[in-house]
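Morning. Coffee machine broken again, so started the prediction first thing and wrote up yesterday's gels while waiting. Chain of 191 residues, entered below exactly as on the submission form.
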Amino acid sequence: MRLLSQWLNKKLGMRVPELETILRLLAVQLIIGFAFIIYRPEFWLEVILLSLVSFGGTFVVICLRPLKRVLTVRMDEKSFAPTLQIANETLPFLRRGLNEETAKQTAEIIQKISDVAAVAITDKEKVLTFIGAGCERHPVGGSIVTRATHEVIATGELKVVQNKSEFNCPIKDCDCPLESAVIAPLICREK
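Came back before lunch.
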């Protein structure tokens, strides 16, 4: 089983730690199914269907387990403190409206408190501010380039970008040092 698991992991091009478990379950279910078919051959179709449903359910549960680990967020006082501090310090600027000046002040506060490499704030069409590490091809006042940002504006939903390709930046040979991002919409009065 281990050799088959290693071979499949190599062929898939990624590490699937539960693959050996899945293969063992499949082998056990096949053995039980064949034994039952030999003992009661008139129920062969039911045995095969039951084995397929059982294996499919096991496969889904095992494959979704890593997704659960990614989506589980620990909520405690430590995770809320910076968020509340950012909200408290940026609120006076955001109450004056969203423009290049208030966006710059807001971005500076966010970067200082959250200790991130870069912060960008846009309206629906253009970049209002960009501070920190990043590509010079996305200047303040310029239009929004990344498709990931356009997607967040269109859906109004938070997006976590986990690698450079997920930015969907159409600029060729962009040497932007950013590898990941959290793109969050600023919503005011349902807009």
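The longest helix spans residues 44-71. Going to sketch it on the whiteboard this afternoon.
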